[in-house]
Amino acid sequence: MYNGIFSLTENSDKKIFFLACHFLKKVIKKMFQYKKALCIYIFFLFEKEKRVALYMK
Question: Which of the four pLDDT bands, split at 50, 70 and 90, describes residue 18?
Fold first, then answer.
């Protein structure tokens, strides 16, 4: 699943996503059981925000 998602993004987006995902894992490691699901959710939010930013230009 990750490969399919990342193939749609640019390298800079990957770095931002991985950093955000890594940070969130550290912060809520003991609170959130489904870390991978959370990262995917955060990724889709990020993609949505990027599209919104493009529309506003």
Answer: confident
Domain ranges of the chain: 2-56
The string of DSSP codes covering 1-57 is -HHHHHTTS-HHHHHHHHHHHHHHHHHTTTT-S-HHHHHHHHHHHHHHHHHHHHHH-
- Name the pLDDT band for 46 (thresholds 50, 70, 90): confident
Q: How many CB atoms are located within 10 Å of the residue 43 CB?
A: 21
Name the DSSP class of 9: S
